[in-house]
Give the backbone structure.
Amino acid sequence: MWGQKGWFKPSCVPITIILLLIVLVVLLPLLDAAEKHQRTSALNSTLNKCQQSCNFTLVETIPFGMTYKNGSTPYPSTYSIWTEMIASANHSLELASFYWNLRDVDADAFPGTEKGEAVFQALLTAGIERKIKVKIAQSLPTKGFPDHDTEMLRRKGAAEVRNVNMPRLVGGGILHTKLWIADRKSAYIGSANTDWRSLSQVKELGLFISNCTCLLQDIAKIFDVYWDVADPVGKIPDKWPDSVKTDFNHHTPLNLLLNNTKARVYVSSSPPQLCPDGRTSDIDSILSVIHNADKFVYISVMDYIPILEFTAKSEFWPVIDNALKSAAIDRKVELRLLISFWNYTNPAQKYFLKSLSDLSGLFKGVSLSVKFFVVPSTAAQRKISHARVNHNKYMVTDNTAYIGTSNWVGDYFTKTGGVGIITAGNTTLRAQLENIFLRDWNSEFSYPILLP
């Protein structure tokens, strides 16, 4: 019976199993190793190709009437960089933003409105007369943050506008990113909103990037993500297309010659749901920068509150808080936090901050200091709504610079769109950012936290 046609001989069964085992044990690992080697070779080739000489320039807005007694402001203004980017664009301008308020019709009496109007008119001219392709990805407009500016640009044919509906995409939050890209040859990342106040009445800090093809192409992928998931039909895909995946992250940063000094650079994004394969999330990049500090961590942000603030019920969110305490206590890293104080400061903030500063000196070698930064205002300037504040969002350590677009409140990393750029190495940029922090820390505008 066993020898009849259509039946397997007994001797064939173990041979089949042996062949299967050979495939599983020998050939598959070899194929897997070959695939990994191919991917590693391709990545190394990309990294080698992208070893470029790049230009990074810090950018600031110093509010009208604010001058330092013992400091300087040698960096170009946000207004000058934005107008330069618009003027130099030959093909495209891609802008990701929270909201637009360049033409505040209720603020004509305040100095600085002319700068917002000038930027708006330059964009209008670029889109209509110069035929520049202007694409705007903005947070879903609301009653409090309407889309008057972008609607006019769209209606006049100067720009294509898409709304990023974060509540629909991730269940809440906003697009808080502030990103400008011109021809994919230069970019701005920083704290400045597309608001006339960010050009004249709010203290801002950002970074202008040029002559850096690979990095700029990678930054553009973040804009492409916003554009693809935006209304009316966009959604977060089950599998991100290869076009928005990246090889550059915390594990494999770009090795660049940055302003003539060696640097390791990558761009992070938030929330994690909008991070395609390879992209480091913004919170992971912040934690990495804190963890890798050897001597000090200096932080300048508008808000620092370790909670989820914009949920139905506030929740404790100690992710950054724990990292800072660990750095100070376990590794004796010096910490300084410079936080904004203005009319809209959450009263709970100073209690969380004091809980950090109270650790200073509690154990040997632990140094943790906190100050409030107050932008000076005249009686007339105090009438400007949501102005006269230090809006910075950066961190600098003894070996790394981080510049972002998010406040350090839990929601900004879990359900809010943002971007960060990380530059590791003993670069001139890092030193410049440290000097800006110390300028502000030691200025007449910073004060120790006092509780009643």
About this structure: The radius of gyration is 25 Å.
